[in-house]
Amino acid sequence: EATAGLEGRLPLKMVHGVPLLELISDNWKQVEQFQARPDDLLIATYPKAGTTWMQEIVDLIENGGDLEKARRAPTHIRFPFLEMTYPPPVPSGVDILIATPSPRVIKTHLPFQLVPKSFLVQNCKMIYVARNPKDNVVSYFYFDQMNKMQPEPGPWEEYLQKFMDGNLSWGSWYEHVRGYWDAKKKHRILYTFYEDMKRDPTGEIQKVMEFLEVDLAPDVLQKIVHYTSFKAMKENPMANYSTIPKNIFDVSCGKFMRKGEVGDWKNHFTVSQNEAFDEDYQHKMAGTTLTFQMEM
Ligand code: A3P
């Protein structure tokens, strides 16, 4: 049982200046020394940016649009979570990956500077999904209420400040999105945006297909667009995280497939929070060409 020994919310502990769940930090050596293989694909995101959505897209592309194949197991089994660590004897993400045959598709929330060096040495492909920070923090706020491994989110006002200060689990959103943006100049990274996937799923899925060097007929592509819609994934038990035990994801505190929209932040930010956020954002994002769509 993947939850044995877990007794509620975990504190954060720094790894090279990035706050991570203590279980991960305490196992950092194993993560750092992870041996990537050349045909590994890494799906990297800041938490709540659209990881699960991209995972489903990639899996369907690699299975030629065959939904039954993509429904062979829940998301967290199909895509081992690189840095995730549980109390022994439960295998860590790295333990699972060592035993996983190639080609492996690996999930991570690590910022680029903490990605194990072997991924760069092996020149592995990476897909990054970025989401506008306002929707990202709202989604994370709800998630931290239901995910009983994460630190207590506390009230919204304080949570927003922690996000701006880079004090949430996996650290600063600003450094995260900028890190991969800069890294894509040198490495094989497909950098995608949640908002683009909402606006033009066909075009974005096509980009992923090209990056993966998979050619599928237009009708198969349209099937994938359909199967990876919010509505379809919300109803798909193999894609909606409904199989996670209640002591980890407490579904009485909310659903994993919550809203799936662009601009929901407007229902949460006050006018003054929004002004303070925008001002701080200008400083933290100064000097980058990276831009976000905050609404559609
Ligand atoms: P909301 O909380 O805003 O609804 P992650 O997979 O990185 O944890 O991200 C989860 C967020 O992506 C949640 O956002 C979830 O609803 C949304 N999401 C998941 N699948 C989606 C889809 N097919 N279309 C749009 N949003 C999706």
TrEMBL record:
The terms describing its cellular component in GO are:
cytoplasm
Q: Indicate what this protein is called per its UniProt record.
A: Sulfotransferase
What organism is the protein native to? Pleurodeles waltl
Protein family according to the UniProt entry: Belongs to the sulfotransferase 1 family.
* Primary location group: cytoplasm
Subcellular compartments: Cytoplasm
Molecular function per GO:
sulfotransferase activity
* EC number(s) reported in the record: 2.8.2.-
Check the record and name the InterPro entries matching this protein.
P-loop_NTPase, Sulfotransferase_dom
Q: Tell me the domain of life.
A: Eukaryota
